[in-house]
Amino acid sequence: MTENRRHSLSDHAFEAVYHPIPQAPVASEPFRPSLELSSEESDVELDSANPPVEVDARIRWIHFVLGCAVLLPWNVMITATPYFMSRLEGSSLQSSFSSYLSTTFTIANFSLLAHATATSKQASNSRRVLFSLTWLALLTALLTASTWFHPPPGVFFTFVLLIGMLQASAGSYLQTAVVAVASLFGHRAMQAVMSGQAAVGVIISGVQVLSAAASTRIAPSPQVDVVALSRTAEENSAALFFGLSTVFLVLTQFAQAWMTKLPGYRTLLARSRSRVRPPPVDSGEIPDETHTLTAGGRKTMNGRVQMLRLVRLNLPYNIAVAYVFVITLSVYPPITISVRSSNPGTHQLLFSAIHFLVYNVGDLLGRFLCSLPRLLVWSARRLLTFALARTLFIPLFLICNIQWSSPAAIRPIITSDVLFMLILLLFGLSNGYVSSMCMMAAPSVTHNPRLRGRTEDVDVAATVASFCLVGGLTLGSFASFAVRAMVCDCNPFAA
């Protein structure tokens, strides 16, 4: 029974997603020049029969943790917004801080992702993961230290935006490398990464709910300076949160290093290295460490042509995954945060915190559904239809109990808190499900007939899909300015 279960897991784990190990005799093993082996890893003995690599639960859980780390920087910055805003109190920069933070973060992420994508063939993914995690840990440690200093608002504003841009830059390389390594183990590892990205949002928003509930129940003493007390509490809370995030990133480095020592990972890399052929002996050349880099360099000469071809070839998948996040970021949270509770006894701070939690729970649930075989949808046309259908959420949110600047703007039709939360739950569920299915299907030679079984296109297809995902985040971030201007009837860049 146990042996059959292990074989079943192995069969599922090696389904092609990015640069896969093939299932049984379906496809040949792909060439993987972008994975470099350390001298220690290259000593692994190769079995001439190339048996399937066993992907155990440890590897999938590590990919889950890596998925958490990928979106941790963004969630750190968003969750710490009350702390940042308290430091900018009394400054004209306070009201527009959130918009500037999201825009600069996504622009940096999108820009550096282009470089990470272009150089992915020549880079060692394991080294990129460790290097990116190191930088993210250092940057988060700087945020921890910032809670003990009080520079002028303008200096602090610049400092936070700079830290955010640097985190986004490091996160771009981390995202590219994590997706590459996860895809080697098939769609289950990819699903673990996507679930980790959603799980970190649930954890952080859960902490927000607890903090909001505690703060709204505490009645401050009249003798205490309430403003000073709240600032002190925010600084202490931020220091604890930043510190825990730093520790998590450091532990993730150890998890990544441990994964590279696991038999399945070492066998996978050794098999990938075996695909690199040394120069002929009669050519007079001596094989050395530069041969792999040279081969990778020659292969990337046609990389741009190949990438543009796959942009067109997988256009439905690429448009779908981008459009999912255009819709999501254009209304969440600019419109959703403006919805007010119809219950006068519910504090708005708590209501907003719960709304973040509900969305993240839906997002996580949607990504979890991708692990159920009966619910998998691989059709590009159907996934694109699902993505376009999410546009209907915009008018649904607009007729909720929104606090408009103009009282006569739109009369609310949906005034029930429960119904609003249900719509928000479905919004998050559709975001997680459709985006995950697009990322799993686009580079799959098994389920994407557009690739026509060409394993050499798998890595580029996954990279293009990931790039389109971040492009959708960027476009959605810009669209949020227009949505915010519509709701507040103001200049979103200055108010």
Automatic annotation (TrEMBL):
Start and end residues of each stretch annotated as Disordered: 276-295
Transmembrane parts of this sequence: 61-85, 97-117, 129-149, 155-186, 198-219, 239-259, 315-337, 382-404, 410-430, 460-483
GO annotation, cellular component aspect: fungal-type vacuole membrane; plasma membrane
Subcellular location: Membrane
Protein's UniProt keywords contain Transmembrane helix: yes
Main location: membrane
Record keywords: Membrane, Transmembrane, Transmembrane helix, Transport
Pfam short name (any one): Nucleoside_tran
Protein name: Nucleoside transporter
GO molecular function: nicotinamide riboside transmembrane transporter activity; nucleobase transmembrane transporter activity
Statement: the UniProt record of this protein carries the keyword Transport: yes
Membrane topology: Multi-pass membrane protein
InterPro entries: Eqnu_transpt
Family: Belongs to the SLC29A/ENT transporter (TC 2.A.57) family.
Segment forming the signal sequence: none
Biological source species: Laetiporus sulphureus 93-53
PANTHER family (UniProt xref): EQUILIBRATIVE NUCLEOSIDE TRANSPORTER, EQUILIBRATIVE NUCLEOSIDE TRANSPORTER 1, ISOFORM A
